[in-house]
Amino acid sequence: MGTKRSLNRVYTQIAGHGYSCPLEAARSEFRRGGAFQSLTLRYVQAQLVQAMQSAGCHVQHEVDQRLARWLLICADRAHSNTFKMSHEFLGHMLGASRPTVSMAAAALKRKGLITYTRGLITIPDVKLLEKKACECYHVIKDHLDNYTEFDSGIIS
């Protein structure tokens, strides 16, 4: 974002792959003002929308709803309904303690909304888990699914 230092760290939350490039190459491409710059700015907006929605969600919704939201977003991004994730990590993401996350996960498991064994989480029926998640899931999902599309702001 043009500063010398960032408070952000980039890491993967689910096993998979990612891409990187030298910082100066990204800066150079961004300065050209083309497609990379446009996509980068839309991605930053998508991250801001997710952060703002998550902040409001933490105030308004119960931990089981927030857990359902987070698991659905992870499944969407991983393109898989099964992934490895510890309760401790989920606690960090949800702003809750590991025991609180374990109790919420157990409640979701009892209802058949998720299964888990030693950090391996599976969502057997996405539609059922969506019913448990708060409305924040769809707000975030819709924005993340569409951030690559350009909106001119012109209403026709």
From TrEMBL:
User: What domain of life does the native source organism fall in?
Assistant: Bacteria
Q: Which GO terms describe its biological process?
A: regulation of DNA-templated transcription
Read off the Gene3D superfamilies from this record.
Answer: Winged helix-like DNA-binding domain superfamily/Winged helix DNA-binding domain
- Give every HTH crp-type domain span: 61-127
Coiled coil location = none
- What does the record give under GO molecular function? DNA binding
Which SMART domains does the annotation name? Answer: HTH_CRP
Please report the name of this protein according to its UniProt entry: HTH crp-type domain-containing protein
> Which species expresses this protein natively?
Tunturiibacter gelidiferens
